[in-house]
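DNA starvation/stationary phase protection protein: structure, please.
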Amino acid sequence: MEINIGISTAARKKIADGLSELLADTYTLYLKTHQYHWNVTGPHFNTLHAMFETQYSELALAVDAIAERIRALGFPAPGSYSAYNKLTSIKELDEVPEAMAMVRDLVLAHEVVCRTARSILPATEEGHDEVTADLITQRLEIHEKTAWMLRSMAA
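Here you go.
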């Protein structure tokens, strides 16, 4: 069926493309955070292990919300590792870093997600897509706060 939600097809496509990048960044951050949860060691183990679990659990819910918004706009949501690898701006590390390097790496990754999310806002304004703008605002609040908390721990 045709989609007639008051946002043009071109605007929906532009927003969905941006959300696809946000989805890839969010999923990549989820994987990175989950890996760090499994592999963290050292004197901060208990604190970081629990904190990383809270963070990756929140990210798992976020990827679903972002993907469902892409679908609501009428486009397929990317869902493969190869698609995410092409779309993400988050750098993967080849080794398992020490605990505080994990924290610093996650700060950088959350900041990447913030920049990706912000880059979509002009398209949501042009397309009068308040729903996506609200989703992005919520994501920004979470990622900025998480980056601040991690940054404070790494100081």
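Notes: Helices lie at 9-39, 45-72, 81-87, 99-126, 130-154.
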